[in-house]
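Figure 2 data, in text form.
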Amino acid sequence: MSPSLVQRSATLAPIPLRIILGIIMVAHGHQKVFEQPKDQLPGALESMGVPAPERVARFVSGLEFFGGLALLAGLFTRPIALLFAGQFLFIVFRMKWTKGLVPGYEYDLALLAGFLSLALMGGGSGSLDELLFEQRQERKAARGWRLTIARRGQ
């Protein structure tokens, strides 16, 4: 039986979200990794009292660039989306909360919602997650059925 239109569209829904968020994060990460002065982000983090600001800055820069590339490919979508959600929780509540919603943290809040949605939905159709991990789950399920049938036959 073929999946209904609603079921099929549910697997397609994460694709534009994943691609757009991936592009945004790669662009921001590229800026931090290749264009900004190397002390700019650590200095900002240090002024907020973030411990080990240089390490955190390297992690955030790498997450944005390489995590954004992974989102574009749909690889490890859920864990990377959770990491980004954590980053944007920090940005909204620690960096921009006092500025108010508009003009303040509305953009970051929208990104947070997008990352939480990806964390819940996964990468969707055509993602590497689907290709690599769902096929493995199907094989495990098939083995489980074979074991069940074999046990009943004893």
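Caption note: Residues 17 and 114 are 7 Å apart (CA to CA).
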